[in-house]
Amino acid sequence: MESWQQSLRAAITSPQQLADRFAIDPRPLEAVCVRYPLRITPYYAGLIREVGDPIWRQCVPDPAERDDAGLPTDPLAEEAHSPVPALVHRYPDRGLLLAGNSCAGYCRFCTRKRRIGRPEFNISFTELQQGIATIAATPQIRDVLISGGDPLLLNDAMLQELLGRLRAIPHVEIIRIGSRIPVVLPERVTPSLCRILRQHPPLYLNTHFNHPRELTEQSWQACARLAEAGVVLGNQTVLLRGVNDDLETLLELNRNLLQMRVRPYYLHQMDLTAGTGHFRVRVEKGRELVAGLRGRITGMGIPQYVIDLPGGKGKVPVNGDYVETWGDELVLRAPDGTKVVYRQT
Fold first, then answer.
1. Closest among 40, 143, 51 to 97, alpha carbons compared
2. Does residue 345 surpass a pLDDT of 80?
3. Active site residue 118
4. What's this protein's family per the entry (predicted)?
5. What tens digit of pLDDT does each residue of 48-80 get?
């Protein structure tokens, strides 16, 4: 059986490989890939049925990514909230530990697309150690989210050491992992990985299914192995034009996630990230979709619809408690009481 490392090495990483497989013209994609790298695992590429379908849109570069539309590359001000390179500290009680800079697949809508897959943003082992040391020296941090890049691309020994060091910090109560591995490289969820994760309870993993066609037998098995290892599973879906911006797709996605023991957690409004405007759905449409879920699926299957506020102000639900003005420019109230403008156009 082919290992997950071999699958990763066999990933599509150039427009020419896409052209060879799907009979497209690679030239319009080449300039995109200079700026935003390409990686599609053999498994995930196998889910594409036709050019332009919901799987294709998520993983194949689009010339529209070159249009920044006046949007920032770091809309959540993560770099401004980084006391050291591997740690983002936007919330008083939470820390985001960047365990790496690589993913099994490079999502075209990624909020960190400015840095993911680019060598100049690699996280060194020394920087990762600095991040852990900063968490240890900051007693108010009780909740650590390990992200990156995808932390499950670390080898087993490295992941064991990372989790062990965090568990040894007395004030760290909660460890969460953000990973799209169950979606794009389910073969990575090996028995040895699950043995490691089982040793560090309570452990939470939020994955990132966006479309029902991603819920394959392989992904079901990967999530089952994680759940049986005691990992609490949630899902964060991004609302994406041409992928999941219709009610029946979201219903099917969330119903099946519950059967997989994965709780729908967030439905994210797209971050205002440069190079992602072609995916954006208006907030009014998102509210309509969430309202449509009610009465057609158990409340456990209805994710919270949120906006991650520009400038690093944090996530807020899209409702009247936090949205003061609707329209092309939403005025939202941040958790600290300040007002933030979210421009839809």
1. 143
2. no
3. no
4. Belongs to the radical SAM superfamily. KamA family.
5. 999 999 999 999 999 999 999 999 999 999 999
